[in-house]
Amino acid sequence: MKYSSLILNCLTAVILSACSLQSQKQDIIESRVEELLGQMTLQEKIGQMNQLTSTGNVDEMVTMAKEGKIGSFLNITDAKVVDRIQKAAVEESRLGIPVLMARDVIHGYKTIFPIPLGQAATFNPQLVEEGARIAAIEASSDGIRWTFAPMIDVSRDARWGRIAESCGEDPYLNAVMGVAMVKGFQGDSLNSPTSIAACAKHFAGYGASEAGRDYNSTFIPERLLRNVYLPPFEAAAKAGCATFMTSFNDNDGVPSTGNSFILKDILRNEWKFDGMVVTDWTSTTEMIAHGFCKDRKEAAMKAVNAGVDMEMGSASFIEHLEALVEEGKVSEASIDNAVRNILRLKFRLGLFEHPYVTTDQSVKYAPEHLAKAKEAAGQSAILLKNTDGVLPFGKNVHTLAVIGPMADAPHDQLGTWVFDGEKSHTQTPLTALREMYGKQVQIIYEPGLAYSRDKRTEGISKAVATARRADAVVAFVGEESFLSGEARSLADLDLRGAQKQLIAALAQTGKPLVMVVMAGRPLTIADEVKASNAVLYSFHPGTMGGPALADILFGKTVPGGKLPVSLPKMVGQLPIYYAHNHTGRAPNGNETLIDDIPLEVGQVTLGSTSFYMDAGFGPLFPFGYGLSYTTFKYSNLHLSSHTLRQGETLTASVELTNSGQREGTEVVQMYVRDKVGSVTRPVKELKGFRRVTLQPGERTTVSFQLPISDLAFWNIDMKRVVEPGEFTLWLGTNSDEGLSADFEVIDEKARR
Fold first, then answer.
1. Averaged confidence pLDDT in the chain
2. pTM for this one?
3. Is residue 59 annotated as a catalytic residue, yes or no?
4. CATH number at 632-751
């Protein structure tokens, strides 16, 4: 016991010492910030608030740095140019303040990982963190020290192109994956030369753009904002995310860049965020088009007064802030607060001590980076269908027909928001299948269509003829990278061009047909799923997508991805998401659909529930769905208690058995429903998940800890509380399937 006490005392001393050292470092930074701020002129302060993209004229950018007219440059990827600008800023300007170099490094720099939506499909935050770390190592080798990721907008409408950059429809999943990305980008310490500052975007509510149309307005009441759209951002702030970005949308009539409620009241005052806030590209002056500001001067005033620190792209701050201060419309104290946040970030990044690029250039496309990208691409692939065990391909497949416009599309499989990845390094499915499996199986290739939007059908007959010569067919379809991302909203989510006709024609051959979808968003593929024997969904998988998919097709690896978004049957269901409210007339599955309605039917209600006559109620595949090459059995759900008090923690466990013939990985998911609240509550909410790998016949107990505090929500009085009452908990394989048990949270005051 004495020995144990000694160890405990030593550990406590180490922790206290580390906390004290961290506090000392922070105090030193704050002292340096104040000292430097006290030496700055108003013009120099405003210069720090100015971020512009590369002008292409190095001499011009050097002059701006020397004169203190720039705080950050975007899109400079040449280390020599970075060093030249930094030399002017650090050695030749009056105060020697370094310039912060920024770039959109969203899902990789040179080695491209799956798009964020695909990374979310892995349900593996450790792997996501490792991917962001690799992106930071590669980007920092060119002097980039700030990225505009993670995008953690809860996204429930696949028409919105930027769903590709998100982690899907669920607040919890966005929070977990967002924190993983923050940790990966920023590393163990921001002042490491290989760390880059993360940026949580878009703050806030941008994923709810009306009708799924980019840049559009949102109408999110405060309770919904706090319960659904803000939790991922709060998690990022608590994880130490260095910066936040305002969003393009206005919510309830107030553009985010001019919204002091979210930027000051919530971000600064409630969450105690001491990082830096930047606008999105020209979103300051876009408040004029919103009708919120009459001119650039008023836009600058409203943005700074709302709590913005740095302006991206539009330069209204440097044009008008000096005059606004003189007129008393913006206080110099507000300017000082903004510059404090900017300087603090630069000190935390170690830019004053190490402004120049010193990292190894050979890190780009390092073998270990490519291996990790392949692992991520493999874990992100989702098996939606596998009739009669068509996959993986076995010894009965001697000739494999590879068909489709995405089979050999090195540019498009990289996905959206790729500025620096090079298609010459992309390994496509066709290349991978030939190189990895071409000796054991004859690979015959006929694209059928030249690209995803190709409407010409003359190539389909060649594809069909090729398919008839094969033992099995794998058709790679989907969408080009250009069709998802910013400003890529779509009203029609069907396969583009003649891809639907291609799949239908291949199905008619009678050959086993495997459809692999490579896309940036959920597509409406109900007919194609029905026509195919097996379906793999791969959100644009990045540089190593080809080898990852080839190994899955031939069973070297087993698919284990899960849908981070609900897959709709048709676009008219959007927005669709599992965590909806129950409504007073919830569907029961017995509704009459349109094809079953008799002619000249009388005025009947068909069940009087909330559903579509042509689509029913649910999606094609629910959130969290994904099959494996093996099967899993859930049994013996157990709760540590069925009655709990606030402040306690519930332990929920379930036995998971690999009941199939192959090793496999299952993502066990925990959902909870608050049965009755002061406001209506979602039918289910994700509260945890765990990846578990089991051998055939192996069984294990999977346990979750659920602090009762995690059941809190913003109630009828706009207070975040855990309301006593009855709850249901599920442990299962997706949001629709699982074992359930009830528990109760007791109101101790009522018991006294």
1. 95
2. 0.95
3. no
4. 2.60.40.10
